[in-house]
Amino acid sequence: MRADAVRNRGLLIEVALDAFTHKKDVTLGAIAKKAGVGIGTLYRHFPTREALIEAVYRTELEKLCDAAPELAETHEPEAALREWMDRFIAYAATKHDLKEALQAVIAAGMNPFEHSRAKMVEAVSSLLAPLGARTRPLDLMALLVGVAQNGDPAQARRMLDLIMDGILHGAAARTAPPAPEPR
């Protein structure tokens, strides 16, 4: 794609994310106008409303999963995992806000979640490995989904602290010498 086409696609996705999470009945024309492009440009990139919604979802998923290696390179392992978990909670809130729009995508016969699980498992695994954690990636993801559904940001932070304690103490217990047998 040409540079301007890449820029326009990115702008459309950015505007659509805001629109679909705040205004459920927004028109594609309004999205194109706010992005500063014509409706023809929108349709060249996204032939249907559902294609645009799916692109918005996949872009958010990719941002989250692509953050894992970046965080691993720039943070200590514990801080990288915690920052990624905070980002997961924000991603889940966005996904929740897109719920109605995603249901329309599914009703149209598309599967926006097809590659989600594998990408998430890969991201989580890469962050858990340096910690020597016994936590399984799918177990951590299930915990994070539960925390995200709570809706209270202060409680979510406390729950993430508990999860981190469990992961870190579980890893420490695995590397610690066994306790002596009672006599």
Alpha-carbon Rg, integer: 20 Å
List low-confidence stretches.
Answer: none
The total of beta strands comes to 0
**Main beta-sheet strand count, sense and barrel state:** none
Distance between the termini: 72 Å
- Helical proportion, percent range: over 70%
Strand content: under 5%
- Whole-number average pLDDT? 89
**Helix-strand sequence:** HHHHHHHHH
- Helical region count? 9
Specify the overall morphology.
elongated
Please identify the structural class as seen in this structure.
mainly alpha
Reconstruct the topology from this structure.
Elements (H helix, E strand, L loop, with lengths): L2 H20 L5 H8 L3 H7 L3 H26 L2 H21 L1 H9 L8 H13 L8 H14 L2 H23 L8
Short description:
The protein is an all-alpha fold and 183 residues long. The chain has helices spanning 3-22, 28-35, 39-45, 49-74, 77-97, 99-107, 116-128, 137-150, 153-175.
Describe the structure.
With 183 residues, the chain is mainly alpha-helical. It is built from 9 helices and no strands. α4 packs antiparallel against α5 (77-97), α4 (49-74) crosses α6 and α4 packs parallel to α7. The longest helix has 26 residues, at 49-74. It is elongated and about 55 Å long. The protein starts with a helix and ends in an 8-residue tail after the last helix.
List keywords for this structure.
9 helices; single chain; mainly alpha
